[in-house]
Amino acid sequence: MSEDVVPYLVGPSISAWDSDGRAAWLASRVKSRSYTDEVLRKIEALRERFDVAEYGQIDYGGERYPLLALKSRDWRDDLPVALVTGGVHGYETSGVQGALAFMAAHGSDYNGKINILLAPCVSPWAYERVQRWNAEALDPNRSFTGQGGTQEAAALMRLLAPLQGRVLLHIDLHETTDSDETEFRPAKAARDGVPFVPGDIPDGFYLCGDEKNPQLAFQSAVNLAVAEVTHIAPSDAKGEIIGTTAVAPGVILYDYTALGLCAGMTDARFTTTTEVYPDSPRATPEICNAAQVAAVRAAIAFALQAR
Questions:
Q1: pTM of model > 0.85
Q2: What angle do helix axes 285-306 and 216-226 make, rounded to 10 degrees?
Q3: Which domains, and CATH codes, for the chain?
């Protein structure tokens, strides 16, 4: 393959997509699952035990999606907040389903200890189409800056604005998939008009902490709990995971603020981004969801103990 050509369905790599290229990409996106069936109905099933808040609505060409969050029923203003987010990238399934599984099984475990605020599917249009981007070919997890660079980010930031200074923990649930390398990175290169440079996908679970607030003991505690469910990604021969130096086993650091990452949207003391690997022959959807649940539980336990 020539390094100057990206084998992608829209646009050559030598020129970035124009409006026609973006429109062609959008027209090629097909629904393959239902946000209503797989997310909203599960939220409704939890309404008897938790408060449900509609914090916004996504609208793309008249196609509307309500954005729902679950909150502790016994919310107390004197307690800190644990924020759990999933589905910022809609194709990362266990981020959504793991978040919902955590709330169903363990959301009531923390009554009187910490308030739980859970936004399980931040990007519902992308969830239905198993996509990383939203309908505008923008990455929601690079848009948590200013007032929010996408509808998805802006709505979540408005929800959190009154809670600044009270969020103790934010854990953002993600996956790293083989399709990152086969579809989404080539798509980004084509969209931006740059050469596609192949990379490697790590086999296993890992965490992305904030380089300005790494909290490595916290990151390691989360990995220790997840290791009981699934394997932790090893570093490569360069000591890297996904092209970034590992600062501890299964831990890399990004500049959350500079990249506009969801996990950097608050001033929480403890922050992390999980990365489950669903394409491993050693993983199943059930294992992936369980890994996310274990990560959330370990994160909350550590934050409460350190508080």
A1: yes
A2: 140
A3: 19-306 (3.40.630.10)
